[in-house]
Amino acid sequence: MKALIAALLLTSAASVSAQTAPPSPAPAPTATPTTPPKLIVAISVDQFAADLFQQYRNHYTGGFTRLLNGAVFPSGYQSHAATETCPGHSTILTGMRPAHTGIIANNWVDQRAGRPDKIVYCSEDERVTGSTHESYTVSDMHLKVPTLGEMMKARDPRTRSVSVAGKDRAAVMMGGHKVDELWWWDGKTYVSYAGRAVPPAVQRTRDAVAGLIALPQKALPLPGYCAAVNHPIVIAGKTYGQGRFEREAGDAKGFRVSPASDAAVFAMAAALVQDMKLGKGPQTDIIDIGASATDYIGHTYGTQGSEMCIQMAQLDKTLGDFFAVMDETGVDYEVVLTADHGAHDATERQQQRAMPMEAHMDENVLAKQVGTAIAGDLGLKGSVLLGTEGDVYIDDTLPAKTQAKVLAEALRRYRALPQIAGAYSAAEIMATPMAKTPPETWTLIERARASFYPGRSGQMVVLLKPRVTTIVSPAGGYVETHGSPWDYDRRVPILFWRKGMTGFEQPLSVETVDIVPTLAATIGLPVSGLDGRCLDLDPGAASTCATGG
């Protein structure tokens, strides 16, 4: 991180000193600030489960140590059922659940799409000729609500809003529709919407990262506390659990699935803060940062090997270096760090570690398989169901009466399968009121309701039982995933920090939709009609929720 910062920043003697010194400790608290911060720094660590945070919190010595001195909510919830990257990111800076953001999943089926590929990616414009959900033009068109940056701009057009991430869907869903700069990694370099000028900070990032990828990467150091998880396990003929991120020269994919990709995103963010002088004007600015490496590493290696342990140590250092640079700017900045969803370790390793009931999903749960069986019974051709994760759609070319028969039979079949916890029709879900109780108490159908958007969600939603992963086979280097309605995928940390604030920890549950009204209150921005509520960041009799949200 320090080397990347040195390459990207417009260095001065002071900033070089900050880059080479250890991360600065958090300033001693005095009284919780009552004036608006000049810059909001919103960080999402993709797949940073509350369980992962808890596992390593005693080992943090860098940036997380600072955040642990702020307002700590270890039981934050992405409260909806569809715990995927796009829905989760859509909640963080909108204050709305997917049922209102419209982002129900990473992918969904639109049988009206004017192209052969009827699967739609959450951050694409499917109207572009020749596109598919895997080869697409990035767009914000599917996000149905404004982000905090947009709300701030609506009040004060001088507000600058910046969003950078390792994934397009993270940058888009946190940045929203009106951003000054929005950049993401496309597998080769950092890109934005067509026609946007490349600012110097981004070009320096491109050049520095290209130089980094051109060189081989030696094995990263293994912290002593990682010995507890540094054990091999064979999954689908490949050994995992003792990796240290070595990569050959020119390996861009290996760069993406490594701590270095997070370091590059934070270095680019720091450079944009400096170049754009964010937080230096009369208004409050905002920068959103999506750190995607934890998710890539989790899917590739699982959460309980040396790979994730090293990632946690490296991310901690990267955050410390980033905060040291932010301190050097002299800007009064406010930080929130959370995640888009949690995760569950690889089935095979879980089976070895006291959880023999862990299982891969059977093929007979797939919508195509169920739909083919139903078609045979009803004298129809092919499969009459289409599916993406938990959403199941009925072939809309069928007559209405036939669709009704298919729905009834599909619900009957799914509910009889041993791996299914719940199968609900769209009508049943829409008849369910939005939950008002703490998120850990919600029923399955209430969790499904929170991520159900009529006309975009399926004619039914199917949810697997706990500890059953949607991965049918781990072959192909994809050993672990998320997306379930269970708390290991729903629970994420939510951490707030600002210089001078008095820290505290609240272990009771809160939601990621609470972030926007909480931040809005600190800048005196009135908000209403959101799914979230303001969290009081003052542990005493005073309240940070007295104004704004």
From TrEMBL:
Binding site for substrate: 106, 167-169
Protein name: Alkaline phosphatase
Any one GO molecular function term: alkaline phosphatase activity
Recorded superkingdom: Bacteria
Active site: 85 (phosphothreonine intermediate)
InterPro entries per the UniProt record, alphabetical: Alkaline_phosphatase_core_sf, Alkaline_phosphatase_prok, Phosphodiest/P_Trfase
Cofactor-binding details, from the entry: Binds 2 Zn(2+) ions.
Top EC class, one word: hydrolase
CDD domains xref list: AP-SPAP (cd16016)
Alphabetic keyword roster: Metal-binding, Phosphoprotein, Signal, Zinc
EC number, UniProt record: 3.1.3.1
Entry function: Alkaline phosphatase with broad substrate specificity.
